[in-house]
Structures are given as structure tokens and as C-alpha cells.
Amino acid sequence: MYGYFMDLNEALLEFTKPFSMTRFRPVFYALREPKNVAFDTKIINTHLLVLGIRIPILRKIAKTLAIQADRVLKGLKVDCYELMTLKGLMITKLQDREAVKKALATFVPTIENWATCDLMCGDLKIVERNLDYFLPLIKEFLISDREFEMRTGVVLLMKFYLNDLATVFALINNVNCDYYYVNMALGWLICESFLREKEKTLEFLRTAKISQIAINKGIQKIRESFRVSDLEKQEILKYKRG
Fold first, then answer.
1. Residues in CB range of 224: below 8 A, 6 or more apart
2. What is d(CA 23, CA 21) in angstroms, rounded to the nearest whole number?
3. Tens digit of each residue's pLDDT (9 = 90 or more) over 103-156
4. What is the dihedral of CA 218, 223, 224, 229, to 10 degrees?
5. Cβ of 1: how many Cβ atoms within 10 Å?
6. CB 162 within 8 Å of CB 194
7. Do the domain assignments include residue 26?
8. Is 119 inside a domain boundary?
9. How far is CA 212 from CA 19, 191, 215, in A?
């Protein structure tokens, strides 16, 4: 699409200038790495164009642009997977919780792959400092009919709310769907909760209304963990369904 490739340091220097999509886009595209495209496309399962730009590079770009995050978010036009992911990372650079909440409410419904979802959620440290403030938005994500809105809600609960398992389990118990990426996230959450609070997690599994797929995925992940004893791995099979 563009006939040259650019050194990362040269590109980052360009990104310190006032943001405009016209200036930004050709430099960003010049960072593409064709050798990564086939692999990234397969594992991310995105319908968007993939440039093969690695996550560490996207993080460096987001860090460079952080000082003008508001301006970037207003002007950034998404036409490939990496730009969608960069937009998610830019939301994590906002300092005002209200701005973050508004940005999430607009952006999350547009997410169409697990990688963008998980990378953004993992970097949203502002949620950890404002648990009560963001919980209503997370609840809205969980009752959505969109796969990656639901996954965003589950992943945020797993990343930042596991100190309150009663609330987490009450919320996810209403999430019963056939979406693959939602059930995989629920399984991941179950494993993480087990590593924190074994008995509370087992009590949840006894009566959980979430899908059989999610429960069995959680059990699989628990059994794969190096932090779980052989005896516990055997005992957890009692909770497997189907």
C-alpha cells in the first residue's frame, strides 16, 4: 500500500508531532511487517485488514501519543486491526475517568476480535482505582447481545474485581450464551478465581447457570495450571458437566 518501510524510532519521532490522520496513516502503515500477517490473521480471527505490526510496537506508539490522547481518539480512523487495537490502547491513556467511560461506551461495541478486547482491558488500570464507578458500565456490557461487549465485561471483572467474588459470580451467573469468545473468557475467569479462592469457586460451580462450555473450559484451565496440585486437578473433575 505504501512503497517503503520505516524505522521505528523515526516513526515515533513523527508521532510526537500534533496528530492528524493524514500525516499519521502513511507512517503507521510503513511499520507493517508482512511476515507476521498470516499468523496474526489466523490467531486473531479478525475481519479487518492485518498489517502484522507487533503488540510491543503498538504499545510504544500509544505511549508516544499519550500526551495527545484526546486528540488522537477524536481523529483516529480505523481501517485495520492494528489501528482498532491502537484506539483501544489510547483509551487507556486518558486520565479522566468520565472520559474513559464515555470512550468505552462508544468504542467497545465496535470491537470484533478478542485481542483488541483483552489488550485494552489489561491496560485499563483506571478501572482498578474506580471500581464502583465503572461497575454499572460493565453490567451493561454483560447484558449486551454483542459477543465482544460481553467479553469485555467478563475480562474487566476478571482483571480488576476478583477481590469481590460474590459480586463477580452474581454477575456472570446471568451470562449464558453460545458465543465462543465469551465462554472462553468465562472459563479463564473461573480458573483465576479458583487460584484465589478455591472453596468459593467450587461453591459457585455447584450451582452455576452459565453454559456447560464455560464451566468445562474453566475446569480445563484449572487442570492445566502449574499452581494447582495433582489432587486438586483430579477433584475438580467432579464439577465437569456433560
1. none
2. 5
3. 999 999 999 999 999 999 999 999 999 999 999 999 999 999 999 999 999 999
4. 130
5. 10
6. no
7. yes
8. yes
9. 47, 15, 5
What average pLDDT does the chain have?
A: 96
Domain assignment of residue 58, given as a range = 1-123
**Amino acid at the residue 124:** L
Q: How confident is the model at residue 5 (pLDDT cuts 50, 70, 90)?
A: confident
Amino acid at 100: V
Alpha helices in the chain (DSSP H): 8-14, 21-29, 37-44, 55-65, 69-75, 81-91, 97-107, 114-123, 125-128, 131-142, 147-160, 165-172, 180-196, 198-207, 212-224, 230-235
Q: Which three cell numbers stand for residue 143?
A: 447484558
- Within 10 Å of residue 80's Cβ, how many Cβ atoms? 19
Name residue, grid cell 467478563: 154
Longest dimension (CA), the chain: 59
How many domains does the structure of the chain reveal?
1
Nearest C-alpha neighbor of 43 from the set 144, 115, 135: 115
For residue 178, what is its C-alpha cell? 453460545
Does 138 reside within a domain? no
- DSSP summary character for residue 240: -
Angle at Cα 55 formed by Cα 153 and Cα 82, nearest 5°?
Answer: 75
Residue tagged 484451565 (cell numbers) = 221
The single residue listed with the C-alpha cell 470491537 is 111
Task: Tell me if 159 is assigned to some domain.
Answer: no
Extract the C-alpha cell encoding 222.
484449572
Q: What pLDDT score was predicted for residue 242?
A: 87
